[in-house]
Amino acid sequence: MKLATVGTSWITDSFIEAAKKSGRLTFEGAYSRSEEKARAFTEKHKGEKWFVSLEDLASDSDIDVVYVASPNGMHGRQAEILLNGGKHVICEKPIFANLKEFKSAFKRAEEKNVFLFEAIRNIQTPVFKRLKKELPKAGRIRSALLHLIQYSSRYDKFLTGEVANVFSPKFAGGALEDLGVYPLSAAVALFGAPDDAAYYPVKLSTGVDGSGTLILKYDGFVCTILCSKIAHSQSPSEIHGEKGTFMINSSSNISRLEWMDSHTRKVESIDSDETENDMVYEIEHFANIIENRDIDEYRRLKKLSSEVVRIMENVRKQNGIIFPNDEK
Ligand SMILES: NC(=O)c1ccc[n+]([C@@H]2O[C@H](COP(=O)([O-])OP(=O)(O)OC[C@H]3O[C@@H](n4cnc5c(N)ncnc54)[C@H](OP(=O)(O)O)[C@@H]3O)[C@@H](O)[C@H]2O)c1
């Protein structure tokens, strides 16, 4: 299948590299608001054509799939244009800013008989899938602490007065949308939808959260999610069961899974993965769904993304974090 991209930052470079590695998507060309950038980016990745109009990209019969890596607040509008043109769309996390955008875009995908995916790479990795399979070994889950606490170089600039999109409500930014979405998606994929959720943000001057603590209430345990772009942590995320504890090295780049028995306290390695670019896994998964028209798996992923968007929208609104997307 032939691939085009939206967004010209490093994450799109990574996605194209992963697409090449997977052998499932062939890069054809890039869209950018600037013709110079669109051309340079396309040439850098040895594509054939470039676009400065999303409508032209949407109607180009050579393109099958479009990867969207623009600021969060743009995903909804851009995805609608591309779906309308009959393209499969792989949209970066967080897929949409709210449920209204989510429902509208998935309805459009259905009408056009194409697929729409959220690129949330952590849950597609083999180590995460192994964790899910091994989870019953822990016995009754009693708590979980999943986190993504990653100091952002863009925060240094923020402190000098330069506001990157990710710190702006205008582009549906903030720590929960940008980083919390990884551990939250992992929690929903592992434990299902929580009975209740509450968020305690640490807000920045722009009104979005620079960090925060999200509490997910489940039957018999609480899952605590910490996310931050204004501090840093090296410690693993943990799931605590009565029989033992699972530890993963990260909530976004999951490459190591360890287990500690509650009685012996012995730590053993269960799985590890040396892959440099884990976007390969999501690409393979999405390509399989499209090629095999695997509707069951498609619906499972859609339900998961929908639950994550629902929780994030509810808790941020409870805290007065409102995006322009909510008011449209
Ligand atoms: N999966 C991952 O590991 C991962 C990592 C990082 C980011 N992401 C996600 O990828 C997306 C992009 O993140 P990012 O940090 O790359 O964002 P960004 O740097 O703010 O913008 C990405 C691209 O969007 C375009 N853009 C920037 N400002 C825009 C505006 N005001 N209006 C329209 N287009 C604009 C630019 O492309 P042009 O100038 O060429 O138009 C830019 O290259 C986000 O949804 C983020 O959550 C995912």
List strands and helices in order, with pairings.
Elements: E1 2-6, H1 10-22, E2 26-31, H2 35-44, E3 49-51, H3 54-58, E4 65-68, H4 75-84, E5 88-92, H5 99-112, E6 116-119, H6 126-134, E7 141-149, H7 153-159, H8 175-191, E8 196-203, E9 209-218, E10 221-228, E11 237-241, E12 244-248, E13 256-261, E14 267-272, H9 279-292, H10 295-318, H11 324-327
Parallel strand pairs: 1-2, 1-4, 2-3, 4-5, 5-6, 7-10
Antiparallel strand pairs: 7-11, 8-9, 9-10, 11-12, 12-13, 13-14
Sheet having the most strands: 8 strands, mixed
Total number of strands: 14
Strand content: 25-35%
CATH superfamily of the largest domain: Dihydrodipicolinate Reductase, domain 2
Radius of gyration equals: 20 Å
What is the CATH fold-level name of the largest domain? Dihydrodipicolinate Reductase, domain 2
Heteromolecules bound: NADP nicotinamide-adenine-dinucleotide phosphate
Please provide the ordered H/E string of secondary-structure elements.
EHEHEHEHEHEHEHHEEEEEEEHHH
Please state how the strands of the largest beta sheet are arranged side by side: 8-9-10-7-11-12-13-14
Known CATH architecture of the largest domain:
2-Layer Sandwich
Q: What is the terminal separation in angstroms?
A: 34 Å
Q: Helix count, per DSSP? A: 11
Question: Regarding CATH, which class of the largest domain?
Answer: Alpha Beta
Uncertain regions: pLDDT < 50 for 5+ in a row? none
The average pLDDT is: 98
